[in-house]
Design brief:
Immunoglobulin-like, eight-stranded parallel β-barrel, about 650 residues, alpha/beta
């Protein structure tokens, strides 16, 4: 893939002419993918949205930038991925420039009190928070503003659900080729003394903190966990991961071919060993465990932002270490490298592009590269070591030169070489290229599962352990997982990715409770997302059967009617259905009884009339016995078997 991030802070996407310019620029560079920023800070560059259009953006009446971009780009063979900011929702001082639309998520759930110019706590406040004092490290508004940014906390269940709903609405209503997540993490804080062991002071939203304390049995009036508390650190990673998992599964349920990607943190130098990942800044500083996401498969394409200056030796080293790490940690998905063209001269970015596209010694390769950004494709570099000849100070060049450099290795007018033509006679993007196919999309061998878990009181099961297991007796799979251990999020959502096709059972262990094995099974199908919502219901239904068989006397041999009266009840999920079977001890007459189809009723009383033969065989001295069996099923698939009998009596004449 050959992509450009198009950030709408710096690239206008307000008119049809803007759209044409963006597509023209992409095709001039032989790119095949546009990552267009259509959700910036709780707003939308598309009209069919749950959020308002951006403040102070002159969209023509009725003009839908995203829909127009899709039409123009697709007509020229270019994919469009909706680039959305997930957790950052506002970046201006609310006392001076609050969102103008009262429905904006910051206005509704930022807790801002204009009268006191403060952020008020409470369950309806979705913002994450640090405990670092205001005025330190650009912290303000009682720890809720990080530099210029306000972030929602993914550990607040309502905030996470809102974010997922906004993005899924986009997926349902626009023919985008991909959904690209950015700032799907906690905010970074620049303050001295932070280390992997100290952690980062972030995530202290009141609701998130209460959930953590409740899960671990910590008194609500106790002190908050320290930033470096291992359980608290993992909790925050889990909140981010839970949101990614939910978005992935619900988005690909809607559109299985949709590519889910993310712009991922790659601060500092890349890890050199497996254990070194635990000290990498994505893992401990912003709680974005994207290595685990690629392994689990909840991203299709991971795009770490390896923004390094090629003209600095330290930048080259950091770039190469991250490049090697990412290339060897793709698992069953793909990766691209996000290149910081905005930090480099054209020459430096071309060098990084070639290294990014080269396979490793083991033969693994990235899917492609993505440039940040179309607006700032290069910078001036003093004493550029990669100029031809070396050491010249290279200026800021127009975008046309950057595009020409990718295609030909020289400037748009052909007079300036950005690469040595002897070493590279053709540009890195000399020929057009189609977007590579993703095998797990075009020929899926596995399926996925999702659902919501609630308890006996219909409250969501928060952070309940989940075990998804393929059932014994299923044919041996050729691909996919046969078991997944995970947990529910704050809304009770759970999911399993890349499961082997077949039938699965789910076991739930709520915090402080015994395991509950769901009796309903679910079939997982290749290329699809199956759903199994679970209500914990440990009680099977009950009932009684009564038969009026007086019409069978005398045993004349005729077919006579019998009336069954039945009463069924279920105190949990309610009744689902009842099936009946009449068993004739001779196996000669077994009439059918119309089943009961219920809709979750707590109690049902039914009557059924059917005909049996009022006769017994001559040697059957104790009479002919009929057995009625009822299988009563509730909506949790718990089953109770009830039986009763009636007899065609012996007339005692012989």
């Amino acid at each position: 893939m050959r992509g450009f991030w198009v950030d709408t802070f710096n690239t206008p996407l307000n008119t049809h002419a803007d759209v044409v310019t963006i597509v023209d620029r992409a095709t001039a560079a032989q790119a095949n993918t546009i990552y267009a920023q259509v959700r910036r800070r709780g707003d939308s560059w598309y009209l069919d949205s749950l959020e308002p259009v951006p403040d102070n953006t002159p969209l023509a009446p009725g003009f839908d930038p995203l829909r127009d971009l899709i039409v123009e780009a697709h007509a020229r063979g270019v994919e469009v991925h909706a680039f959305v900011i997930a957790n950052a929702i506002w970046n201006r001082a609310p006392n001076l420039f609050p969102p103008s639309n009262p429905t904006h998520v910051f206005n509704r759930h930022g807790g801002y009190d204009a009268g006191t110019n403060t952020i008020t706590p409470g369950a309806d406040n979705w913002l994450t928070r640090t405990l670092i004092p205001d005025g330190t490290a650009a912290i303000a508004y009682q720890g809720h503003r990080f530099g210029s940014e306000f972030y929602i906390d993914p550990g607040h269940p309502d905030a996470a659900s809102y974010t997922a709903d906004v993005l899924l609405h986009l997926v349902r209503n626009y023919d985008v080729d991909g959904l690209h997540l950015d700032r799907i993490r906690y905010p970074e804080i620049s303050i001295a003394g932070q280390t992997p062991s100290t952690g980062t002071s972030v995530g202290y939203n009141q609701t998130n903190l209460e959930r953590f304390q409740r899960h671990y049995g910590i008194p609500a009036d106790g002190p908050p966990p320290a930033p470096g508390d291992p359980r608290w650190s993992q909790w925050r990673r889990d909140q981010v991961t839970n949101l990614v998992r939910r978005i992935y599964l619900e988005a690909v349920e809607i559109r299985p071919q949709l590519k889910i990607s993310a712009a991922l943190i790659a601060f500092g130098s890349g890890p050199a060993t497996e254990s070194a990942w635990l000290s990498a800044e994505p893992y401990w500083r912003v709680y974005q465990d994207w290595r685990a996401w690629t392994e689990e498969g909840i991203l299709d394409v991971a795009i770490p932002m390896i923004y390094q200056r090629e003209h600095l030796s330290s930048g080259q080293l950091a770039f190469d270490r991250w490049n090697d790490w990412v290339r060897t940690h793709q698992y069953a998905r793909s990766t691209m490298l996000g290149l910081g063209a905005f930090l480099n001269g054209v020459e430096g970015t071309l060098r990084q592009t070639r290294r990014a596209l080269a396979p490793s010694v083991a033969g693994t390769a990235h899917l492609g590269v993505n440039f940040f950004s179309m607006a700032t494709s290069n910078v001036a570099v003093a004493a550029n070591p990669f100029s031809i000849p070396p050491g010249q100070s290279t200026p800021l060049r127009p975008y046309a030169d950057f595009a020409a450099g990718l295609v030909s290795g020289r400037s748009a007018n052909g007079l300036t070489f950005f690469e040595d033509p002897a070493a590279y006679p053709a540009g890195v993007f000399a020929e057009p290229a189609a977007v590579p196919a993703l095998a797990w999309k075009t020929d899926p061998q596995v399926g996925h599962l999702k659902g919501i878990v609630v308890n006996e009181a219909s409250a969501v099961v928060d952070t309940g352990l989940i075990l998804v297991e393929r059932q014994d007796g299923e044919p041996a799979p050729t691909a996919g997982r046969t078991s997944v251990a995970t947990a529910t999020d704050g809304s009770g959502f759970y999911g399993g990715v890349d499961l082997a096709p077949g039938r699965f059972r789910v076991t739930v262990t709520p915090s402080g409770a015994d395991p509950y094995q769901a009796q309903c099974l679910v079939d997982v199908t290749r290329g699809q997302v199956s759903t199994l919502n679970i209500t914990i219901d440990r009680a099977a239904p009950t009932g009684r059967l009564a038969v009026d068989s007086t019409g069978l006397w005398p045993p004349s041999g005729a077919m006579r009617e019998v009336t069954l009266t039945a009463e069924f009840s279920d105190v949990g999920t309610g009744l689902a259905d009842v099936t009946f079977r009449v068993i004739d001890e001779y196996g000669q007459v077994e009439p059918e009884i119309v089943p009961v189809v219920a809709s979750g009723e707590a109690m049902l009383i039914v009557a059924r009339t059917f005909a049996v033969e009022a006769r017994r065989l001559g040697r059957d001295r104790d009479g002919r016995t009929y057995t009625i069996e009822a299988l009563v099923t509730d909506r949790a698939c718990n089953v109770t078997s009830l039986r009763t009998t009636f007899v065609v009596a012996h007339d005692r004449r012989r």
